[in-house]
Specification:
Elements: H1 2-25, E1 35-47, E2 50-56, E3 59-66, E4 68-69, E5 90-97, E6 102-115, E7 120-127, E8 145-147, E9 153-173, E10 186-199, E11 203-207, E12 220-233, E13 237-254, E14 262-281
Antiparallel strand pairs: 1-5, 1-14, 2-3, 2-14, 3-7, 4-6, 5-6, 6-9, 7-8, 9-10, 9-11, 10-12, 12-13, 13-14
Length: about 280
């Protein structure tokens, strides 16, 4: 019996050592659960046309199918300059893997939205000075259209169109498709996700000759979906490209210092994002 007990103990120790050896040989990138990641990057943005309603004590009108664009910085040192990092269009994200394939993250998509000036827009409603060409906006022979001059209206979310959101994402290792054997040196993954959040823009507006105003204000909500490719180097550092689209609805936009003045709009957006980041087990 003693020999049997001793033999069992030896087999048990060998099994433990074999398991440890297997764990030691297992690649760091095999499992994601418990890892924390953080990234920083830049974006380019496109927007659908939007109907924008402006309200105040002496005006209430809607501009239809307004065109807008972003304000790209290009490849610039400001993206990594601590004193100027909020100036370009940027994306910050920090997240945690709840298991090997799924993560939850919080972040800020800092986009820029600029109404395109000097275009003709259809208008419904009223404002003081309408039909008098007070703001060089009158379209002769068509009272239902205006020219979007700077005297009439400037309207931007340039510091910025801040989409503060939470994302739930899936991640799948596709390194085998590229015949990559050692994923601890380089790993390629696909990621897809959905997001929801609030809009916290700093709107730069000047309307009907009123004083320019810009202030941070919670203005509405947004939802989004995304898909991307992640390339991780040496277990901990990665570059990620994403395509991201969504819907933004802002019904409480501050336009002047007066609480009586506001704007409302909703539109779709599309982002192209490149980000760099790090991933570590905690």
């Amino acid at each position: 019996m003693k020999k049997i007990a001793l033999l069992s103990a030896i087999i048990g120790l060998l099994s433990i050592n074999l398991t440890k050896a297997q764990d030691t040989n297992e690649k760091y990138t095999t499992h994601n659960k418990g890892k924390l990641f953080i990234s920083w990057g830049g974006n380019r943005d496109s927007y659908s046309k939007s109907d924008i309603t402006f309200k105040g004590k002496d005006y209430n009108f809607t501009l239809n199918s307004v065109v807008a664009h972003d304000r790209p910085k290009g490849w610039h040192i400001d993206y990594i300059n601590p004193g100027r990092m909020t100036i370009p269009q940027t994306n910050f994200r920090m997240g945690y893997f709840i298991n090997d394939h799924y993560s939850i993250a919080i972040g800020v998509d800092h986009m820029k939205y600029i109404m395109t000036q000097d275009r003709i827009a259809d208008i419904n409603g009223y404002y003081l000075g309408k039909d008098t060409n007070l703001y060089d906006e009158t379209i002769i022979g068509n009272p239902n259209q205006v020219l979007l001059t700077e005297k009439f209206l400037t309207f931007e979310h340039t510091d910025g169109l801040n989409y503060v959101n939470t994302e739930f994402s899936r991640h799948d290792d596709i390194s085998k498709l590229f015949k990559i054997q050692n994923t601890d040196k380089i790993q390629v993954s696909l990621t897809e996700g959905i997001g929801i959040g609030v809009l916290y823009p700093k709107t730069n507006a000047k309307i009907l000759g009123k004083d320019r105003h810009d202030d941070f204000h919670v203005s509405g909500y947004g939802t989004s979906i995304k898909a991307g490719v992640n390339v991780t180097f040496f277990k901990h550092f990665y570059i990620q490209g994403e395509l991201k689209g969504g819907y933004i609805n802002m019904q409480d936009i501050r336009t002047t210092k007066s609480a009586d003045d506001s704007a409302a709009q909703d539109f779709f957006f599309f982002q192209r994002i490149i980000a760099i980041g790090g991933i570590f087990r905690i």
